[in-house]
Amino acid sequence: MPVISYFFGIYIRMYHDDHNPPHIHVEYQGHEALMGINDGEILVGKLPNKARKIVKEWIQTHQQELQDDWQRAVSLEPLLRIPGADND
Length: 88
Known about the structure:
By secondary structure, the chain is an alpha+beta fold. Helices cover 28% and strands 28% of the residues. The chain is built from two helices and five strands, in the order E-E-E-E-E-H-H. It has a five-stranded antiparallel β-sheet, with helices on one face. The longest helix is centred in the middle third of the chain and has 13 residues, at 49-61. The two termini are 20 Å apart.
């Protein structure tokens, strides 16, 4: 699964041809969660509060880029990297 962003030890991934609703896969220090692209809420799994807040804010900041990558994933096209919350 392609890593589309990495910041503060948090990996953000997206699968090609994944199920709806549009979401990202988040991994941080052994925790995993699916977070909705539209609202930044956790759909499945759990993250520490600090990581959850950072990722939720990042989702809001990069909403259009995430939607664009989701459309690429559905179309089985290469995904683009999105800058991290640490401006990497």
